[in-house]
Amino acid sequence: MRSLVTGGAGFIGAHVTQECLRLGHEVVVLDDLSGGFRDQVPEGALFVEGSITDHALLARLFVEHKFDYVYHLAAYAAEGLSHFIRRFNYTNNLIGSVNLINESVRHEVKCFVFTSSIAVYGAGQVPMDEAMVPQPEDPYGVSKYAVELDLRAAHEMFGLDYVVFRPHNVYGENQNIGDKYRNVIGIFMNQIMQGQPLTIFGDGEQTRAFSYIGDVAPHIARSVHEPRARNQVFNIGADIPYSVNELARVVGRAFGVEPEIRYLPPRIEVVNAYSSHEKAAELLGARAGTSLEEGIARMAAWARAVGARKGQPFGEIEVRRNMPPSWRELESEPGLADVAPAPTPAPAPVSAPAPASAAASVLAAP
Ligand SMILES: NC(=O)c1ccc[n+]([C@@H]2O[C@H](COP(=O)([O-])OP(=O)(O)OC[C@H]3O[C@@H](n4cnc5c(N)ncnc54)[C@H](O)[C@@H]3O)[C@@H](O)[C@H]2O)c1
Fold first, then answer.
1. CA quadruple 213, 214, 216, 218: dihedral positive or negative?
2. How far is the CA of 320 from the centre of ligand 1 (A)?
3. Could you list the active site residues?
4. Within a domain: 143
5. Ligand 1 within 6 A of 167 CB?
């Protein structure tokens, strides 16, 4: 079984790679390291540095490795920022995906697994259910839904089988805690480790069901071996929503501190987002068994071991109009978090057991 994992140097992709290796797959990881880390690629996988936007590279890889399965996780998943980097978003997240679908059709890949997002649902549809008609409201969600539709068309036209996952607010070991625009839990941990207040957009009463990686990655990896999963869409993740204020307290407790909170002006975002997981439970046996306290404690232990991480502001903002002020400040702030990046160990076997001005990103998806 030969598998390609795109984004396999990133958070979820590295864990999926690990799970695929455990299942006996030979794995090639393709990642451009824009958001991932070379030393996070699990041992045993072949690493190729390159972009999914490079279709000539993809053509060579597919000829050379004759993949049975493609797990497509590479993306820049900063949902809130996607309004301000529309061209980049569609080039990376949509055109890059289409390049992979083309090669998968040409080479008769047996199954194409795609990590979409609950961002496809848009606002006002809770609990989000796979039977609902998606109504994405931002470029990130639009690109994810466009890829879902393209996969459906490729299945109907060429017989390419697929499995689509719509995860939400996944956290855990090996997450990029230095990204200033996404991953609220990582941002909180990075802030605590630098003695900074936790920053929250709005009143902190927005809710999300934060999902531990160990309850997500194994099901993504195994899905190609479950015939009933073929050509299906699955929500995947935790069931219990928490407010961002509650989350801040749980993260504080994991570090033994009473966190100081700095509330920033609210921004336009979905207020409450949680989804139904009945379908994933029935067809994949996926049940989110890890409590928030337990998952956060595991991630905090890892974060303490690797230390705070320096992140960069996004390089090429295309539209600045209506950008949250705290994100604008990032671009001009001198000497952002001046912390040395720590080496990153490969993902722990989870299935077995920002700077001050960067506000926590709590958008529905990433
Ligand atoms: N983390 C979440 O809560 C969440 C929720 C919903 C969906 N997702 C989806 O899951 C996938 C993985 O997300 P993650 O949280 O692990 O993010 P991540 O940033 O840790 O991983 C993404 C990886 O893709 C790589 N990448 C980005 N653009 C690339 C390109 N053009 N070519 C090759 N590699 C590229 C990055 O370097 C990174 O290693 C993404 O598709 C994301 O949209 C994540």
1. positive
2. 24
3. 140
4. yes
5. yes
